[in-house]
Model the fold of this input.
Amino acid sequence: MDQAEGLRNVVKMQNRQDGKSARVITITSGKGGVGKSNLAVNLAVAFSNMGKRVIIFDADFGLANVEVMFGTVPKYNLSDMIYGGKSIEDIITAGPLGIGFISGGSGILGLNNLSVEQVHFLVSSLHKLEQLCDVLIVDTGAGISAQVLDFVLASPEVLLVSTPEPSSITDSYSLMKATFKNSEFIKEETKVHLVANKVTSETEGKAVYDKLNSVVHRFLGGEISYLGMIPQDHSLEKAVRTQQIVSLDSPMAKSSRAFSHLAAKLMDVEEDEPQIHGFGITRFFDSFLHRA
Done:
């Protein structure tokens, strides 16, 4: 399948019969190097294998982890749509399995300086994503920048990635503190799930969650849930080293099966909390732009 055919598959308009909005999942972390983009890409593969149409929105300005793993360089990015007259279809790059990819580029940094007309154009353009995908995965930058917080606060569903390293747990707590203490944070509208990465066992993954959730509960009066863990196996280490996608290269590896398990659990969460699916891409970006 060539790039043109792949892109046609990604942007093929399909009217929804169920009346549901696309699901928005934001992936973030308190520090870099914990596997955030790796989670985004492998979750996208898992969702695609479940028959979902997926688009990844790379909001991590300055890094190109997603496009490197996809092995492709986007022809256009968000800036080209905002300032260059390109359409939303123009800035979607086709990845493996028909997964779409949007590069934020420098456009991410300029979102708080848009005119009213540009904001309206951006929202109306992004609204089209509702018909182009079932799941939008937002890969934020790492740390506690204003931009990261805006994406987290606008999202109905957040995956917080942490490793067992004390510094990672500490930085994750700092991000949660900045989130929970923000005057615009509404805990009933934002569900935070922890994903423990680079762990040796389920026991270690649960220990990471227990440490983090205990301080979130004690000092912030809130709760986060435990989604699951990703084991650091040989296949994943090799994929990271060679900048490949482990779920495609080694689908039977423990790490690949773990990514599939996380995707399945997220589908279960959707059934338990249907309001997550009703939030929608338009509401997400509208909420984000009102904060930016």
Remarks:
- Residues 1-18 have pLDDT under 50 and may be disordered.
- The beta strands are 23-29, 54-59, 92-94, 100-103, 135-142, 157-162, 191-199, 225-231.
